[in-house]
Amino acid sequence: MPRLLVVLAFALVAVDVFAIVDVILTDRSRVRALPKVLWILVIVLLPVVGVVLWFMLGKARSVSAGRTRTIAPDDDPDFLRNMRVKEEQDERIRRLEQELADLDDDDKTN
Questions:
Q1: Are residues 34 and 84 in the same domain?
Q2: Is 39 exposed, middle or buried (0-12, 13-18, 19+ CB in 10 A)?
Q3: Both 83 and 107 in a single domain?
Q4: CA dihedral 53, 8, 26, 49 (to 10 degrees)
Q5: pTM for the full predicted model
Q6: Residues 6+ positions from 3 with CB-CB distance below 8 Å
Q7: Is 59 helix (H, G, I), strand (E, B) or coil?
Q8: CB environment 11-35: b (16+ within 10 A), e (fewer)
Q9: Same domain? 32 vs 8
Q10: Which of 5, 14, 91, 109, by CA, is between 20 and 30 Å from 77?
Q11: Are 63 and 73 found together in one domain?
């Protein structure tokens, strides 16, 4: 029985340390409800309950706030718009180069 208590105490300390390190390494944008310092205090003062609260309430599951979803280029309207603009610019450059070449040919024949 004493061995089981030692193992459980060690597991509790390990989970607390893991949770504290997780709080420290988590980006501020993913921390909810309380500031990081208060989450650390909750974890230290309420070992089991604090860890559960941190993982259930304190840490946001995704980083959707502030980041955009990655979409394929053919589904992205901005990408398609930029491609059309680039194609129009390329066509305009080709026409201007052709006009310059035509003007050069006219100058050589005169």
A1: no
A2: buried
A3: yes
A4: 10
A5: 0.55
A6: none
A7: strand
A8: eeeeebeebbebbeebeeeebeebe
A9: yes
A10: 91
A11: no
Tell me: do 31 and 63 sit in the same domain: yes
Residues contacting residue 73 through CB under 8 Å, at least 6 positions apart: 79, 80
User: How does pLDDT run along the chain (110 residues), one tens digit per residue?
Assistant: 889 999 999 999 999 999 999 999 998 888 998 999 999 999 999 989 999 999 999 988 765 555 566 777 778 888 888 999 999 999 999 999 999 998 888 777 76
Q: Which pair of tokens denotes residue 88?
A: 């129009």
Give the integer Cα–Cα distance in Å for 37 and 84. 50
User: Is residue 63 located within the same domain as residue 74?
Assistant: no
Amino acid present at 3: R
User: Are residues 75 and 51 both part of a single domain?
Assistant: no
Tokens describing residue 106: 């006219």
- Domain range enclosing 96: 68-110
